[in-house]
Xylan alpha-1,2-glucuronidase (Reichenbachiella agariperforans), 718 residues
Amino acid sequence: MKHMKKILLIYLVLWSYVATAEDGHGLWLRYTPISQEAVLTEYLQTVDHFEVHTSSETGLLIHEELTNGLTSMYQQELVATEGLEHSLQVCKTDHSLVKGLGIDAGIKEQIGAEGFLLRSVQREGKSFLLLTANTDIGLYYGTFHLLRLIQTEQSLVGLDVVEYPRIETRMLNHWDNLDRSSERGYAGFAIWDWHRLPDYLDPIYAEYARANASIGINAMVPVNVNSNALILTPMYLEKVKALADLLRPYGIKMYLTARFSAPSEIGGLATSDPLDPGVAAWWADKAKEIYSYVPDFGGFLVKANSEGQPGPHDYHRNHAEGANMLAKALAPHGGQVIWRAFVYSEENPVDRHMQANDQFVPLDGQFDDNVSIQVKNGAIDFQPREPFHPLFSAMKETRLAMEFQITQEYLGQATQLVYLGTYYEECLDAQIGIKKATVSEVIEGQSNEQEHSVIAGVANIGTDRNWTGHLFGQSNWYAFGRLAWNPDLGADAIADEWIAMAFDHDPQVHATIKDIMMHSREAAVNYMTPLGLHHLMATGHHYGPGPWVSELGRPEWNPVYYHRADSFGIGFDRTAKGSGAVLQYQKSIAKKFGNLKSCPEEYLLWFHHVSWDYEMQSGRTLWDEMGLHYQSGVDEVRRFASQWESLEGKVDARRFEEVQMLLTIHEKEAVWWKDASLLYFQTISNRPFPAEIETPKGSLAHYKRLRFPYAPGIKPQW
Ligand code: BDP
């Protein structure tokens, strides 16, 4: 009997170990024990119990989060007594507790509908921490803020934090299809199980909602921009309603993609012409119907007249006519239209870089108040590096929204470790050439006095156990959310937060991972597309290099269209003498980018066609410099791999091994990009590689033969 008990105990210990073994599923919400006794003592003297004075569904979530978070990090039960001393008091600003504390009206106004105040308070000889907000969701965000301070082991003494989001709508765009495939998704299938909705609510939905709330994401679109009108039919709206109901207490609003041809496809109308009164009435009825299912429905995200999607041009109407018709259908219910500016016409011979400005700038000022134009960070397509999109400085009377890609379609998919915080920051901080305004100020609405603001990220979430395929993909989801909340936070500080929460507290682990992350994106640019090269990926799946591709139906689908390598040199002349795209920027920017000497070298071949022998700032020729960039990208990845090796035994085994295996693939892929690109360009430059370049592993013919018919994330053909 004694023996049996012992076995049972061992079994239980082992089981609890296996059950809690790290597999990445816990994201940045692992709530690991405080690492230092002194820090724990300080925390216990500040908060040893809490009271939540709101009983809404969100209030229950707050209660649960604080209980789990604090007991897990403190490794002890919380004090059971009530009372102010050493407590955390969570209550709305209209609660009696707050009334006597003299919190000025200015703060209440500043924190608005989603912000919060976290303040150390002394009252009647008692000291406690007050978390207050105008709304329950503000309290929920404040809860995560406080837990983050504890997770990252910062002092809580004398806290006085006023936080509120700088961008109103912070949304994820899932490019997920109704059959659960995910366009440009690299983490398994889509998490949305449409077939079993509405009755089966997969527990992953609540986990998803909580993770997003923890970083302030407050909106989502569960379906692909290459949209399917079925989502607007009653059968699917039932499912949409179930999801929206579930997401609501977490502060997340549901939006849907709207297929422009829906009136003809599912409505039985002969046309989807936006100026046809029958079509407008159909959309007005459809909006009413959607709001009957989802009373706080956010609105429509629309990809129109781009890459084969239907749109107003099909009826000789412009984007404003299309967007405004939908806006009018949504306006009575408070809904928004988010209309994408990622457009390029299949028939238009003009530099693809210029087509969005050409189509949208003449419409500046013509969009209804509830329309945002969602602009990708750069003018081509989420490339490893792009200068900011010229639309951000060209439409002063229109609300402009940012679209970033979190899923790494062009940045290593789920096999490469690439931290995108630095990418987002580079774009948000770019000066647009109007006074000192930056891209982030345009989106926030500061520079064009817009009341509403929107930022969207194309999600990288799927059914993989660790959510994002590559463990470090989580840091990109995290960084997007944090920058959406506050675009000035900085990629560096965000990396610090994420590492401190996603890994255990070990200074060497932290410093090593941070060094890898902070260099990872530049490394990717170097081994893929250095010095302003872009769009050199292979066809369809976009996995790996294909700079030689030249046979696709449309010129701008082919990499050769973008690099333009010839016996003289390489690069796309977008100066006034070339396509003229640079002139779409404000004068000072156009002057800087348009002049070979002042153009930053990182954008050189984006804007200029440059001789192979051109002397770079380093004194080397362009050809040699290009080669060295490719090589340095590869060298960096090798450095990352050996840095990661040094963490063996310091990072939990499963996550360590997963990242280790992926870094092996990463290195192979970096070498592949470098070899294939340089071998190909050499056939045109006819120059020897500089001595520092490693001998290519395969031949150009070998690289050209590679095929990946089953690579993940391929765009569906329908
Ligand atoms: C491209 C993707 C394609 C998307 C498109 C878009 O390859 O799958 O549909 O962007 O943003 O980068 O609409």
The radius of gyration is 27 Å. The first strand starts at residue 49 and ends at 52. Residues 31-163 form a domain with the Chitobiase; domain 2 fold (CATH 3.30.379.10). Residues 183-184, 225-226, 303, 307, 342, 381-382, 409, 715 surround beta-D-glucopyranuronic acid (CB under 6 Å).
